[in-house]
Specification:
Elements: E1 4-6, E2 12-14, E3 17-18, E4 21-23, E5 26-28, E6 35-39, E7 46-51, H1 55-73, H2 77-93, H3 95-106, H4 110-117, H5 120-130, E8 138-139, E9 151-159, E10 162-166, H6 174-185, E11 189-193, H7 199-211, E12 219-221, H8 226-235, E13 241-245, H9 248-257, E14 262-266, E15 271-275, H10 281-291, E16 303-308, H11 310-325, H12 345-360, E17 364-367, E18 371-372, E19 375-376, E20 379-382, H13 389-392, E21 399-404, H14 408-415, E22 420-421, E23 423-427, H15 431-440, E24 445-448, E25 464-465, E26 468-469, H16 474-480, E27 482-490
Parallel strand pairs: 3-7, 10-11, 10-13, 11-12, 13-14, 15-16, 15-23, 16-21, 20-21, 23-24
Antiparallel strand pairs: 1-2, 4-5, 6-7, 8-9, 9-27, 14-26, 17-20, 18-19, 22-25
Bound molecules: NADPH dihydro-nicotinamide-adenine-dinucleotide phosphate (NDP).
Amino acid sequence: MQCRVHLNDDAWTDWYFEMEMLIGGTWQRAASGQAEDVTSPYDGAVTGTVPVASADDVRTALGRAEAGAAAWRRTPAHERMRILLRAAELADERAGLTAEIISAEAGKTIAEATGEASRSGDLIRLAAFEGTQLYGDALPLDANRGTGLDKLGFTVRQPVGIVAAITPFNYPALLVMHKLAPALAAGNAVVLKPARTTPLTALALARCFTDAGLPDGVLSVITGPGGSLGEALVTDPRVRKVSFTGSTATGEHITRIAGVKKLSLELGSSCPVVVLPDADIDLAATAVAAGGYVNAGQVCISVQRVITHPAVGADFLDALVPKVEAIRTGNPRSHQTTMGTLITAAEAERVEGSIRRAVDDGAKLLTGGERDGAVLTPAVVAGVDPRSPFSQEELFGPAVAVSSADDWESAIAQANGTPYGLGAGIFTSDVSGAVRAVREIDAGNVHINWTPLWRADLMPYGGLKASGIGKEGPRSAVAEMTDVKTVILHGRPW
Ligand code: NDP
């Protein structure tokens, strides 16, 4: 497809985005001069070039961020909101282009990429509002024995200073925005390190903020290898908050090296769905046929495991398999394609291998699991042992494992029986069962009569157990990206 896009003021390109990175308001190359290609996982086409930064570039960005944070925290909330609202308008105006970039670099279908890109503007608006709501508490100090009415106590919220934001490949706009927008709204400077496979979207979104008038120093976006750049960012004492979304392994590593600073970690998962005998089976199958395969299953809240009661297990599979077989793989840019690629051919190979091993261990492949490069046909695997790696380890691919549980106790035990606890769904027509699921399933988000693959951007969102620490969503993120200061005014007894 020949489509010309206007990215810079002076350069028209044919699906080729030659981008500089953003260091404290200046678009520039890496200090080393190194750059690398960003390629489409579908056909290997080069979609752009970005700088390969080093730890030196990180230190430069942090130096600029110190000045930026100092200026931005002195900027009144109404002025911060004005700039963010302008950035939101620009994000809306550019949503079509952003979608094209997402689809090109991540292999996401154009329909899904359009849905993702179109959320940026509203997310910035929600965060901008929350940034104006930094209320504190009045402290009833005289209720504490030994203090009287001569003192006044209250709390104030202030920005933490510099936030390091590190994001994964699977939602290159949404997950970037869930960090940038609240961090900036709360008055912080941000240094963002997007995933190496999907840096173009992050750079395009950053441009909305700089074009909206964000002051110099406040935002940097550094592109290059996560190991060295991430390490330089996370360990630097000037960073007061690390907001990380990615794998549990990298998240655990960050907890070991970060030192004393605030951490939010949105990590991996193996999300369960429980289908009880009184469930609407067609609804459950429809929801799983979406929730297991959106973005080729590369979603932290993707349905990985379905736990059915034996009374409805066969009916559920009969309803599910044709719906999954109706999913169309192919060129992500085609509107006919309903499931895109995995992020790389190597990732598709990994998922294909996991499906094969599950089958070797006795599970039954009912459909899918065939690979062509980074494309893997959507799979349903039945009779999966809940203790097997196919259930226990995060799959992050387009396959759903179906197992059965004879009673409520064992269904809950299976649902809770992995190291993770991000999202869960339960299908039932019985309100008591729903209440019990809410109480007993250990997951950060529990959905009744839908799968965990559902998110409204304003809701508190985050995992339990190995799925993470802290919550995102604009209100929660603004709270986590600010510090509470307690102030006591000492009068004299009268
Ligand atoms: P990774 O953990 O591999 O990478 C995430 C980010 O961390 C990337 O920007 C990566 O850079 C960077 N990184 C790599 N090494 C380090 C390091 N040593 N220190 C600091 N940063 C580092 O995850 P993926 O990109 O593969 O994303 C998939 C994972 O993200 C899945 O586990 C998924 O569940 C999770 N996720 C969780 C969500 C949640 O809300 N709980 C939402 C979405 C995804 P580089 O790309 O250059 O390697």
